[in-house]
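Researcher: Good morning. I'm working through a list of sequences from a screen, and I'd like to move beyond sequence-only analysis. For each chain I'm collecting a predicted structure so we can compare shapes side by side. This is the next one on the list. No need for commentary yet; just the structure.
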Amino acid sequence: MRNFHQHGIDTRGRTSGKVKTICPQCNDTRGHKGNKSLSIDLDKGVCYCHHCGYKLYVPDDAEERERQQRKENYNRARKLPSHFRRPVFAPKRTTLSEKLEQYWTQERCLAQRLLTDLRITEERVRLPESSKEENCLCFNYFEGGTLINTKYRSGRKHFMMVKGAELIPYNIDAILDTPECIITEGEFDAAAFMTVGRKDVISVPAGAQSNLNWMDRFVESHFEPKKLIYIAVDEDSSGRLLSQELVRRLGSDRCRLVHFGPECKDANEHLIKYGAESLLITLEQAEEIPLEGVFTAEDRQEPLRTLFENGLQRGAETGWNNLDENCTFETGRLAVWTGRTGEGKSEFIDELVLRLCLRHEWKIGFFSPENMPMEYHLAKLAEKLTGHPFRPGPGMTDALYNRTTRWLTDNVTHILPDSGSYTVDCILEKARQLVRRRGVRILVVDPLNRIDQQLEPGQTELQYITSLLNKLSRFALQHKCLVILVAHPRKVNRNTTNGELRRVEMNDINGSANFGNMADFCFTVDRNDGKEIVTIYIDKVRFKHLGSANTCAKFVYNRINGRYWPCEEDIVHRTDGDKPGPVNTVFDNENWLKNITEESCIFD
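Model: Good morning. Structure tokens for this chain:
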């Protein structure tokens, strides 16, 4: 049941179908009272007044319960993290100068009432760009009525936000429990849409950045319930990248792209140039995301032109020079790793994904039951990050421990379904939510044999594996993730002549040759204890601009901190005789989180 009466709407006893009734918003002010201008779809809960344009969505009981649950979860999650600080709101600064009010209303064409509604303030602040004190218009970022952050903007377009304060969307309270919302790239653009009557508008906090960490806390409470989301960011190259990441996180099915027309890069420019009515029309004409899976050359015009002008570019590097010269990575790909049991597949992959995250901000999701309990795995990751054993000591101080755990909290998530259901569909559904809520770009499935194998009636093991690989590949493409799958080989027999074990190949993986056929990257980890060398064989790289197949990279494993040091192989002269071993080893015991403002820049 939907409670229309709490909104002052009389459905005349009807509970389904479509009806017309009087509008609670405009009926009292109309000359012809009692006119039934409000159309209601009782089944869908949608209301629209043909006279005043009033729109309303009324949830059913189940949706209302979900809304209340989200609200409770959100209120519990609003506790301020210890590493954030908050500014103090000074109401006396809401008295604005005439010059600022004229700038707001005459130059920006924004409604004067918004200065009060948005609690705009004015203050003289020393700004880092000029190293001078400047008069600033202050956009105050509130959440639940509490001031969280402030952006200072001077007339010279110098900006500053409160150091150490949390980044949250501007005007975030306005989209809680609304069926739609508009996302802009700047506060002036948000105010432009509010000027023309929309209230459900927010702005991203830090301009056009692909790092959307600020969104994580609000996905479930503010964004998941949305039926429709207008992406109204700037129409420049940075804005397009932001738009793509927002669509990836929020889902293309409910996003619409707003375009502002010739000579207008944003909403405020459009309002100034064409007026309020025209700005509303941009929402009506907002572009749907192209139909998934159906493309023409026109749909790919921009990336095609970029490819034509710039050529194929190498992928993401890891910082291991010996690996990078033969293989680089990109999202949207499936990488299969194999190797004998206990030879370090998981250890190497852990460092690989940490390096990709540090260099490129690719957040990581692990499905890794063999690394449980989770604390053990997190401790191993911490050792790789810091270069120190995970225990109190001169290297691992309390301050470094806190910084490391905070970095891991921000960038690493483990998937461990509560139900204990480890089917590929269950794992990918969790991963899908992590893409939206946390911005995950790497999914590690380690290993394959811990996924519940549920064959359909009449399905062979070969068909099951092919289906599973297809699901992983589609997930990688649809969500622009790098999916890493660890698959154990069958037993490899020793050479009967010399007793040596040959290295594992893709065709040795249990079940199907399709592991090698369907993957974009194929790697084998081979550890030789006699030589003290770990060799990473690059057996397949689908696209030649990303690297070369049938190559390898050699490493020495550091047992103290779990890192892999690049090396070369040659004859080493030892007291027990000459034999092959590592030479020219590149040692690295540095703390990767040391002396940097942004941890992700450690390898730049």
